[in-house]
TrEMBL record:
Residue intervals passing through the bilayer: 31-47, 54-73, 79-99, 111-132, 138-157, 169-187, 193-217
Record's bilayer topology term: Multi-pass membrane protein
Top-level taxon: Bacteria
Organism: Flavobacterium ammonificans
Family statement drawn from the similarity comment of this UniProt entry: Belongs to the TMEM86 family.
Compartments where found: Membrane
Keyword Heme annotated: no
Protein name per the record: Lysoplasmalogenase
Amino acid sequence: MKNKTVLFIYLGFSFLYLAITALEQEEMARLMKPFLLPFLLIAVYVSEKFKTKSTLLIALTFSWIGDIVLLFANQGELYFIIGLVAFLISHVFYIVLFNQQAVTTSISNKISFGAGIGLILLYFFGMITTLGPKLGPLTLPVIVYAVVISSMLYFALKGSYQWAKIPYQSVLIGAILFIASDSILAFNKFYQAIPFASFLIMVTYLAAQYGIVWGILNLNQKK
């Protein structure tokens, strides 16, 4: 019950943050941003103990660090790189998290699973082909990042076929939204400016984190 209350507060605070972002109140949004993910951290922390709890907390913590560091990205490329590394580590822990979940069934629909893998590969090569010529010295770090987030999506997809049923497939949807957020950020930074980029990046990111956390908590709640 406690975690549901904190998750509800997270949603309310996120809607307020997004409204302020949409109104282009940048200074207020910058002040609020570091206080978003702590609600998810608290929600997980107060939940009953489960096998992957510490892994989820670590993934969220590195995402939170990335959020804070990227607030200073306009002050130098180093801040962007550090933020990228923080989110890279976060995604690695999400991969570990998804891989640690208890498997309740085998993959029966191999055709749709294979199609999903094909879409992930299409996304990966499309991103690299489109952004590659624009990346300059950041080419290798961005390729590594793209490999990791694509792998994260693969393990979320695989889990959606193997785990106990989660309402609305929220972990898989969260993983997709996470990639959408990262992709908007990358295109906006390296390819061309996207209208309302800040709002689009954050609405997909906040929904992604909520979807993953809510799904994992549902997956591990005691019956």
